[in-house]
User: What shape does this take?
Amino acid sequence: MFPELVVYDGDGQPLTVKYHVLSSILLNELKKAGARAAVQEERLRSLEARLALIEASAAERRPAPVPGRGSTARMGRPQQEGQNPRLAGEGHDLVAPAARAVHAQSR
Assistant: This one.
């Protein structure tokens, strides 16, 4: 990993390792790893705070549970036949009965 730590003999064969240099290299790498860990910890704290805000916001928007109804209770009014569920509750639910009436008259 660190060829600069190896001492070679006259034939180019590895002879020994410069152990006195190894400790300073390892210490430097340890400092770098510590700095990376600190950055990651700060990022984790930031992401956890953002998640808490998102969860709190979602909890505020969640409707209160209706007593007597299980977790399968539907939100809003039941859908009528022919009613577009995306438009329900926005004043558009009057369109479906009128359209059915016109369709029935055209038969």
About this structure: Confidence is low (pLDDT under 50) at residues 90-95. The two ends are 85 Å apart (CA to CA). The first strand starts at residue 6 and ends at 8.
